[in-house]
Design a protein that fits this description.
Protein name: DUF4446 family protein
Strand content: 15-25%
Radius of gyration: 43 Å
Distance between the termini: 118 Å
Keywords: Membrane, Transmembrane, Transmembrane helix
Mean pLDDT: 85
Largest sheet: 4 strands, antiparallel
Strand order of the largest sheet: 1-2-3-4
Pfam families: DUF4446
Shape: rod-shaped
Organism: Roseburia intestinalis L1-82
């Protein structure tokens, strides 16, 4: 009766419903296969473990992560302290060996410049003579000295401030 009003035969409705039933049957089989795979993977994951040991493992890993984060913060703090301390240490050096009076030979006299990162420090000048060895020190502030520097002291200072760190010995000149 309804088929007369709609203008098509009831056979088409039955065929359509069979098609929908077939599609649902195929989808059900696909879902069953996927569930079996999921159960198999779950059993492999949980084999030898119960919920308590799995929870303990997760808690242990989270504690390790917390420890690593704390250690990292502590390391960052230590690095900052070390970096700050390094600013005040003598990191640059310039050394010139020379013969102070051209009579001794062997270049036993020397000028040694020691500077920090800001080019503050000192120059030690040791002059060796036949009578003895005389040592002088001159303060360096921002790469300059208030007291006039000798030629050797100037060269030692220049080498200490050399950004390439060329510390070649005066014997090589």
């Amino acid at each position: 009766m309804i088929s007369k009003y709609l203008g098509f035969d009831s056979d088409y409705i039955i065929i359509g419903l069979c098609g929908v039933l077939l599609i649902l049957f195929i989808l059900t089989i696909v879902n069953i296969v996927q569930m079996k795979k999921l159960k198999k993977n779950y059993r492999i994951f949980m084999s030898g473990k119960d919920a308590k040991t799995l929870e303990d493992t997760l808690i242990q890993r989270l504690d390790q992560v917390d420890f690593l984060l704390e250690s990292n913060e502590e390391n960052d703090s230590n690095i900052k302290v070390l970096s700050k301390n390094m600013q005040r240490t003598y990191q640059k050096m310039g050394l010139i060996k020379y013969d102070a009076f051209h009579e001794m030979g062997g270049k036993l006299s020397f000028s040694l410049a020691m500077l920090d990162m800001r080019n503050n420090g000192f120059i030690i000048n040791a002059m060796h003579t036949r009578e003895g060895c005389y040592t002088y020190i001159k303060e360096i502030i921002d790469g300059n000295s208030v007291i006039v520097l000798s030629e050797e002291e100037q060269e030692a200072l220049k080498r200490a401030m050399d950004p390439n760190g060329n510390l070649k010995n005066s014997d090589e000149e």
